[in-house]
Amino acid sequence: MNFTSLVFNRILSRKQVVHCIKKNIILSNSLFKLHTRKMSDKPKIIFVLGAPGAGKGTQCEKIVDTFGFKHLSAGDLLREERSREGSEFGALIEDCIVNGKIVPVEITCSLLENAMIRTKKETGNNKFLIDGFPRNEDNLQGWQRQMSEKVDFLFVFFLDCSEDLCVGRCLKRGQAGSGRSDDNLDSLKKRFNTYMTDTMPIIEHYQKLNKVRKIDTSPGPDEVFKSVQTALQQAHDEKLF
Ligand SMILES: Nc1ncnc2c1ncn2[C@@H]1O[C@H](COP(=O)(O)OP(=O)(O)OP(=O)(O)O)[C@@H](O)[C@H]1O
Ligand SMILES: Nc1ccn([C@@H]2O[C@H](COP(=O)(O)O)[C@@H](O)[C@H]2O)c(=O)n1
């Protein structure tokens, strides 16, 4: 086996690669990039997108239990910031939530980055499910500016479900006492409008890059999770994480 295939097959460790470099043993440029990318300790990111009530939070919790990712919900972080005493963004965030509008990316992206840094520091976990983000072009551009160089983006989970089912689930969640100011018909109409006009183009953008894994979330949660698990196992076999 030659040197190239030793690296390619990951028989050489990062330390050995460094040794080769010091000893002036030449690695081909593209193989070196491939090797260092595989060894990257940047946070691994999966975006989870889908309509309101499609089951993003539900499936993320199951993934956390089985695959050890940390779940970061952009909506939860925004609700937390809205309720934080002294937050200068509370009123703006609440107005966006009730009216199904998207909060400016500078706020959301900073909340996400801080949560990632905190998680890494406190638990060492470096694999994240980012739920409900990027939701529009502003989110996408802001993420590219602030975060894209700092992370390894893996793919988008697109949880797909009909509007009728999704609305029914959110209303039921509201009736069961979610306490969310947007689990009502008025807000849901606006949230769906934003989803169709602003979020679908983002999903399509990633589809064009072949970065979308689509899951039908109309069956019950456990049935849906079987498909999620298959997709994640495949990604794991591809050594994406
Ligand atoms: N596959 C499913 N079948 C039936 N009910 C479900 C399913 N998945 C989730 N639910 C229920 O539907 C409601 C919405 O689910 P969840 O909060 O996971 O959705 P979401 O996509 O995160 O919603 P949002 O975007 O509004 O935060 C919850 O009450 C949840 O228990
Ligand atoms: N990237 C995001 C995510 C969410 N919001 C706002 O929060 C609302 C609730 O989001 P859920 O994911 O918990 O349903 C959403 O309707 C937006 O108003 C946001 O602005 N940006």
TrEMBL record:
<dbReference type="GO" id="GO:0005634">
    <property type="term" value="C:nucleus"/>
</dbReference>
<keyword id="KW-0963">Cytoplasm</keyword>
<dbReference type="GO" id="GO:0006221">
    <property type="term" value="P:pyrimidine nucleotide biosynthetic process"/>
</dbReference>
<feature type="binding site">
    <location>
        <begin position="101"/>
        <end position="103"/>
    </location>
    <ligand>
        <name>a ribonucleoside 5'-phosphate</name>
    </ligand>
</feature>
<feature type="binding site">
    <location>
        <position position="79"/>
    </location>
    <ligand>
        <name>a ribonucleoside 5'-phosphate</name>
    </ligand>
</feature>
<keyword id="KW-0418">Kinase</keyword>
<dbReference type="InterPro" id="IPR000850">
    <property type="entry name" value="Adenylat/UMP-CMP_kin"/>
</dbReference>
<dbReference type="GO" id="GO:0005524">
    <property type="term" value="F:ATP binding"/>
</dbReference>
<dbReference type="InterPro" id="IPR027417">
    <property type="entry name" value="P-loop_NTPase"/>
</dbReference>
<feature type="binding site">
    <location>
        <position position="219"/>
    </location>
    <ligand>
        <name>ATP</name>
    </ligand>
</feature>
<feature type="binding site">
    <location>
        <position position="191"/>
    </location>
    <ligand>
        <name>a ribonucleoside 5'-phosphate</name>
    </ligand>
</feature>
<feature type="binding site">
    <location>
        <position position="139"/>
    </location>
    <ligand>
        <name>CMP</name>
    </ligand>
</feature>
<comment type="similarity">
    <text>Belongs to the adenylate kinase family. UMP-CMP kinase subfamily.</text>
</comment>
<protein>
    <recommendedName>
        <fullName>UMP-CMP kinase</fullName>
        <ecNumber>2.7.4.14</ecNumber>
    </recommendedName>
</protein>
<feature type="region of interest" description="NMPbind">
    <location>
        <begin position="73"/>
        <end position="103"/>
    </location>
</feature>
<dbReference type="InterPro" id="IPR006266">
    <property type="entry name" value="UMP_CMP_kinase"/>
</dbReference>
<keyword id="KW-0067">ATP-binding</keyword>
<keyword id="KW-0539">Nucleus</keyword>
<comment type="function">
    <text>Catalyzes the phosphorylation of pyrimidine nucleoside monophosphates at the expense of ATP. Plays an important role in de novo pyrimidine nucleotide biosynthesis. Has preference for UMP and CMP as phosphate acceptors.</text>
</comment>
<feature type="binding site">
    <location>
        <begin position="53"/>
        <end position="58"/>
    </location>
    <ligand>
        <name>ATP</name>
    </ligand>
</feature>
<feature type="binding site">
    <location>
        <position position="173"/>
    </location>
    <ligand>
        <name>ATP</name>
    </ligand>
</feature>
<keyword id="KW-0665">Pyrimidine biosynthesis</keyword>
<keyword id="KW-0808">Transferase</keyword>
<dbReference type="GO" id="GO:0005737">
    <property type="term" value="C:cytoplasm"/>
</dbReference>
<dbReference type="Pfam" id="PF00406">
    <property type="entry name" value="ADK"/>
</dbReference>
<comment type="subunit">
    <text>Monomer.</text>
</comment>
<feature type="binding site">
    <location>
        <position position="180"/>
    </location>
    <ligand>
        <name>a ribonucleoside 5'-phosphate</name>
    </ligand>
</feature>
<dbReference type="GO" id="GO:0006207">
    <property type="term" value="P:'de novo' pyrimidine nucleobase biosynthetic process"/>
</dbReference>
<feature type="binding site">
    <location>
        <begin position="132"/>
        <end position="135"/>
    </location>
    <ligand>
        <name>a ribonucleoside 5'-phosphate</name>
    </ligand>
</feature>
<dbReference type="InterPro" id="IPR033690">
    <property type="entry name" value="Adenylat_kinase_CS"/>
</dbReference>
<dbReference type="GO" id="GO:0050145">
    <property type="term" value="F:nucleoside monophosphate kinase activity"/>
</dbReference>
<keyword id="KW-0547">Nucleotide-binding</keyword>
